[in-house]
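Recap quiz, item 2
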Amino acid sequence: MKLNPKFLTHETKGEHITVSTTGTKFNGLIRSNPTAAFIVESMKADTTEREIADKILAKYDVDRTTAEKDVADIVGKLRSIGAIIDE
Amino acid sequence: MKEKYTAPDMEIIEFDTE
């Protein structure tokens, strides 16, 4: 899975924004805190939920169960608006 | 030293085209 290339990301002054462009059923934007932004950025290349959780475990002080649950929650939200494609 | 973990938070804002 990876971030739909029709969704563009932008970061300014610590605020991470993902915006839909033309050709998506979702018309709007997504505002992410730093951890959610880390997950979104991790999906710019083809990856899996487990790989993203591994990256979180390497970077943050958190247990695997929490990391995997949080990744699944964010992926579910993004998938619901068509921001994730499966290759 | 790993960074302090904060749960991911995401706000989805849908534009109202109408």
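Strands of chain B lie at 3-4, 10-14.
The radius of gyration of chain B is 16 Å.
End of item.
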